[in-house]
């Protein structure tokens, strides 16, 4: 059988040999960086002779930056993108004397989302042709993963290939950007030595293959792998695994009306790849589907985010050339419909094994063994709802012997958020996990890759007891609360650092942590109710939080008798557009979202909360500016307020009462 050998690399360098003894695997496996992979024939990169585009930033991000071989530069479309005719944007790549192109790889930017391709049509023109032929249309989904387009049978004597970008990520109409557009001719040369393997993934040998026969093989990669297999000591643990697709985090966010923060590194491999060339064997990837290998770096003191180098993978042998840094490998395999995707099998032959901890399959003894035998500085830990990337040193110091407890506590922190925002009750808990990782730049923050903690605060986040107590419990809940902020229906201007703390309060109080709001209740009443202003005019985010938490204090108690108030309210808000399609159209003033919240709170609770919201200024008539991660203007007319109040009155709901006594309650006086 002929095998297609792929070279997906950036630059070729010489790598230093690394020797590693893996616990539970008696023999030493030598990782020689480039040496093994040099014996695997790769594909040929086809040079671009010239290129043009219909839109670019000529001064510093011209189309030439997309094929200069430098992954530190990029092409970017024009920044003025307000026109309705901004898209489509066409990128045309020309070739001189190219005999064949079998596939292209689009490498998107990693330092931001602007311009990552979404909808793309690929066209080509062969030698002697005057018109372009449409090959196919794709949706790269604005993914940060490299995307591969294979041409069935290859393009023979191509003169140019153009990509018509019809949409891209970014503000306004979006943009188009590209770090590198690469074109390849697949090799047709196959070393006969590979014929000794019995399976596509090269994990077993054909009957009759002996050590004597193997010793005669000159291909060092085949010879070393076959020798290890014959010895009976070659461990496939972590090196060979099945990988399922996960829902694209952006798609998940849109479905649940939440923000970014779910892991883009779900498919951890436990494989450590030092700088150099490595072989990766893939099987069962469906035609047209995208699979990439990522090697992130978490240790740059000048970068808050995760630096990442990625390589597109295809079925068969892949040779990747990691010129960037040593690191753990992850498979980026996401889809809009993950349940319909193939389970992909991947083998990292002769690779160094770091391993990862999986709470559903392993115990504390396994956790300790992984820490003791780790070859890299980071250990991945997988829970049911959490993924942790923490330093081995910190986990050894604060969690040794307590790995199950640590990850269980993180799972519990996330589970309690799912409970209060209604995902648990309505069976919408995602398969995707929240990512918590180390960084070397800043104390604690949340970004599109999850929650990050600085390396020198591991005591606060790696000690199982500490993570569910006091400030650490609040900090994690606060940052993940940002991920779960309901957009836009409970995150209008002014709630940036407020509505996320509804879940922070719920989680911390459920763990018995003292209420952060205790010193804020009376000042909030004095400032907001006492001055007859909108709660949004109070600059303190905790005083703004008081009315939202008072609703929980009432309904979740015996006095209110409705513990599912917030779960049901979140679900109702998620369905706003289904009930009222007009909400899908246009951008609404923040007061419209606010009044929508007021009305739905009454509907869901079957309680007339008009007086409560009136006192806290939810019906405040007037106009003022708000600075909250952006500039917002609050504008409410008397007519708006009157219409909302009339709609609530028409529901003919009872005022809030103490269900234990039957007496009416002033909810603004509640506190914990």
Description:
By secondary structure, the chain is an alpha+beta fold. Helix 15 (about 590-605) packs parallel to helix 17. Strands 26-27-28-29-31-30 form a six-stranded mixed beta sheet. Strands 1-21-18-24-15 form a five-stranded mixed beta sheet. The chain has a five-stranded antiparallel beta sheet with strand order 5-7-12-9-10, with no helix packed on it. A hairpin with a 6-residue loop joins strand 9 and strand 10. The longest helix has 18 residues, at about 405-420. Mean pLDDT is about 90; it is low at about 1-35. It is built from 17 helices and 33 strands. About 25% of the residues lie in helices and about 25% in strands.
In short:
The chain is an alpha+beta fold. The protein contains 17 helices and 33 strands.
Strand content: 25-35%
Structural class: alpha+beta
Percent helix: 25-40%
If helices are DSSP runs of H or I spanning 4 or more residues, what is the number of helices?
17
Strand order of the largest sheet: 26-27-28-29-31-30
How would a textbook summarize the main sheet?
A: 6 strands, mixed
Termini separation: 72 Å
Q: Over all CA atoms, what is the radius of gyration?
A: 28 Å
Please state the overall shape, judged from the principal axes of the Cα atoms: globular
Q: What is the subunit arrangement here?
A: single chain
| Chain-averaged pLDDT | 92
Strand segment tally: 33
Low-pLDDT sequence parts = 1-33
